[in-house]
């Protein structure tokens, strides 16, 4: 099994840390590929950067010239997961929803500890949209900028652990969720400082993605995440890849729905056969 773990910012060293944490969480036979967008912001801490990241993540995935079974979007509270689900026929897991989902299995109320205060509304909105907000006791800011998680990890751990303790004592949280992909590399140290279970969204997303692939489940293509309608797309780096991905999904659906004819295999060339039938591909953006 191969899983693409896509960083939402352009800081390659942070991608390395996220991929390292993902590999530690993954099963022995799961290959983790870390991807860094070729354009975007060095860190995502607001709506402008988040929307730009959504484009960069799509471009990175569509430009990956290889096979994969699932995609993880490694940005907490960022936009873009829904677009990936339209584009791809493999499972797409966002670390925001993965972390909160597992937290609700561990306690009645969870709190998210994130970076700057300006990111709190984005996370609250994503949890609300996903229907995961009801059991969220609070979303707390550690006051640490995303890039400072790497630049000053000791101070970051102190700040995150301090807010986690406040969430337990004041907000009555029973589980803590780390609210930034860049915290994944610090998760082990933070766990040792907390009195309740701590969920890293990256690790949670890896295990959920593995489960979806193992169960043969993927995104429903009825209504909400049906492929985008074919139309002219100009000016965007991923335009060609998006069109080809949608065409491939429609061709595949048409082939699966009807009886096979002598030329039915021509549509299937958009998803090449591989040695492992569980591994699927996407049309590369050229």
Briefly say what this structure is.
The chain folds into two domains: 2-94 and 210-281, no CATH class; 96-200, 3-Layer(aba) Sandwich (Rossmann fold), CATH 3.40.50. The chain is 43% helix and 14% strand. The protein is built from eleven helices and ten strands.
Describe this structure in words.
The protein has 11 helices and 10 strands. It has a 4-stranded parallel sheet with strand order 2-1-4-5, with helices on both faces. It has a 4-stranded parallel sheet with strand order 7-6-8-9, sandwiched between helices. The chain has helices at residues 12-25, 47-62, 81-87, 95-104, 120-129, 148-151, 153-170, 187-193, 201-214, 239-257, 265-268, and strands at residues 2-7, 31-35, 67-68, 70-74, 92-94, 110-114, 136-141, 175-178, 198-200, 280-281. Helices cover 43% and strands 14% of the residues. Mean pLDDT is 86; it is low at 258-286. It has 2 domains: 2-94 and 210-281, no CATH class; 96-200, Rossmann fold. The chain is α/β, with parallel strands linked by helices and 286 residues long. α8 (187-193) links the parallel β8 and β9 (198-200). Residues 241-286 are annotated as: Disordered. Residues 241-254 have a biased composition (Low complexity). It is an enzyme of class 5 (isomerase). Keywords: Isomerase. GO terms for molecular function: amino-acid racemase activity; hydantoin racemase activity.
């Amino acid at each position: 099994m191969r899983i693409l773990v896509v960083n939402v910012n352009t800081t390659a060293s942070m991608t390395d840390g996220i991929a390292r944490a993902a590999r530690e969480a993954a099963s022995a036979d799961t290959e983790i590929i870390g991807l860094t967008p070729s354009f975007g912001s060095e860190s995502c801490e607001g709506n402008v950067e988040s929307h730009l990241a959504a484009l960069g993540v799509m471009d990175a995935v569509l430009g990956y010239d290889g096979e994969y079974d699932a995609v993880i979007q490694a940005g907490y509270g960022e936009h873009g997961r829904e677009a990936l689900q339209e584009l791809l026929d493999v499972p797409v897991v966002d670390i925001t929803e993965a972390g909160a989902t597992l937290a609700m299995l561990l306690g009645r109320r969870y709190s998210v500890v994130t970076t700057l205060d300006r990111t709190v509304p984005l996370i609250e909105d994503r949890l609300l949209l996903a229907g995961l907000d009801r059991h969220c006791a609070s979303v707390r800011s550690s006051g640490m900028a995303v890039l400072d998680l790497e630049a000053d990890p000791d101070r970051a751990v102190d700040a995150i652990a301090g807010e986690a303790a406040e969430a337990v004592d004041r907000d009555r949280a029973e589980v803590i969720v780390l609210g930034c992909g860049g915290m994944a590399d610090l998760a082990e140290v933070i766990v040792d400082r907390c009195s309740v279970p701590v969920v890293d969204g990256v690790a949670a997303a890896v295990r959920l993605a593995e489960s979806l692939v193992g169960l043969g489940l993927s995104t429903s293509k009825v209504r909400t995440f049906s492929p985008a309608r074919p139309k002219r797309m100009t000016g965007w780096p991923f335009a060609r890849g998006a069109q080809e991905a949608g065409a491939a999904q429609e061709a595949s659906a048409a082939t699966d729905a009807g009886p096979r004819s002598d030329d039915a295999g021509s549509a299937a060339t958009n998803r090449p056969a591989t040695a492992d039938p569980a591994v699927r591909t996407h049309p590369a953006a050229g």
